[in-house]
Write a structure and sequence with these properties.
Length: 622
Amino acid sequence: MGKAYEAVLKEKLDAANLGRLKVLRNEALLTFVADAVALCDPDTVLVCDDSEKMVDLTRRKAVETGEEIPLATSGHTVHFDGILDQGRDREVTKYLVPEGESFPKALNQVEREAGLAEIRGLLKGAMRGRTMIVRFLVLGPLGSVFSIPCVECTDSFYVSHSMNLLYRLGYEEFKRLSGGDFFKTVHSSGRVDERRISADADKKRIYIDYGTDTVYSVNTQYGGNTIGLKKLALRLTIRRADREGWLAEHMFLMGVRGPGGRKTYFAGAFPSACGKTSTAMLPGETILGDDIAYFRVLAGEMRAANAEAGIFGIIQNVNPKDDPLIHDVLTKPGEVIFSNVLVKDGRPYWLGMGGELPKEGENFSGAWREGKKDDGGKPIPAAHKNARYTVRLEALANCDPELESVRGVPLSGVMYGGRDGHAYVPVQQGFDWDHGIIAYGASLETETTFATVGREGVPEINLMSIQDFVAIPLGKYVRNNLEFGRKAKKPPLVFGVNYFLRDKAGKFTNGVRDKHVWVKWMELRVHGDVDAIRAPTGWIPKYEDLVPLFREVLGQPYSREDYVRQFTIRVPENLAKLQRVERFHRTQVADAPPVLFEVLAEQRRRLEVCAAKGDYVSPLDL
Ligand code: SPV
Ligand code: MN
């Protein structure tokens, strides 16, 4: 080798591990790994290839080190994160911005040199006494235009094990890679306690050096903070997609069955707790992805692929009735990592699983019994609300067969779903791509869910449900979406859904399962099989088209009263929503495209015209 990195690598890597690294013939990679080794100072380095032996080794080591504990069911393990490490941490996740460079002000950031010095200081010597695991993975299907190679150096076998389930193994891809860019992550759990849990939560930092496509993460283990390929890479991907003219979205992908056995693909963006996973997993349909989708126009057609190959899903409320498919995976033998659930006698328990939970067991706080309080005197729940499961998508009986398709799948529809108790109807279709992107995507609101009695949800905009990750100016991101639609010969239809519309008494106007009917209606719209009514906010379903769908999909009748209650246009509430959305874009989005305000202004005019018929206009009167 004879290069600067040679001495470092030779000191820590044995011949076999060094050989696996050198055969990749990638200077940038060797430099990156050597830098991580020199910085973190592990005792040994394990360079993983894609062999079953390696995959099995990281799986076994996760248990041997104590980061995961085997459960009674074969293949099941549990991992606990610290009490202050139960979710993505916005506060300490920052972009490293070089001095003098313009970067969106709304995003959490730190001057690059100062930030690098801080996080590298925290990583210095952090892996002493441990093994550094070097993992090669790929975002998107292997060997495709969607593929993005990634390397992660971590001292957590739990993180390494999780990546086996969530991504495509990429060692062979790196062999094929001659030069080319790749994403890099260095992660260390930092100091750990006797349960192998990160102990210095106050020193938790996740910094994104977007100029070098490198992520640094330390003193944390929660998947969303440590698995570089998840939301951290999404931030880098959005920048890359911006440069290259495609889109990286925070969306699920699903196949919806239509008449004659046809299958139509949809993508969907929902802020958390707005029905994203339950839509993606509707029984009878196929699931292609639950979190991150890439869109490209190939030969004039919009195509989509899942960046991931597994699910890091919220387990709260998963029950056999509403979520039969995933419930099946979580209760049968097979590879599942549970995190932050309650464990009693080798069995996992979570909130909302149905039935009584044990009164004691082990959870993220250690030994737990009902009534246990945290340092602030607040009761610790049996399991965390953000407790999760990690599984391969293929474990699901309805995993779509096109998951690994190198050209992705043709995308026919995009849906945006918020939590809106007051204004938007349960389902509607944008008048065109621009209207859908603007009136549904860029207007996506979710209500904060306060448990406090009498306190109503405060609407908060989460633009396309991706706002946290948009590492380019927000207005540019909206513009990219608008322009992207123009590149396709036939852009997908855009739908807005809202599963949370309430009546005057505050009751939900819809049942939990009604979403399946809306999805089937969208499928029919894509193929022009049903007509629709032109409402001020979009095309809405006709009553007579929904009746057979309710009967066929849910086996239940659908009354005209329900239809009128759900699809009445609420003019004042819609005007108020428009005002909030406009204010957001005027004040928070410096470079909002002018067309956005035009489309919103047209929507206002349509609502004002409609107001001649009254404040609340029945769909039967439109
Ligand atoms: C989300 O919070 O949107 C997730 C989980 O999908 S995380 O990996 O934490 O981002
Ligand atoms: Mn997500």
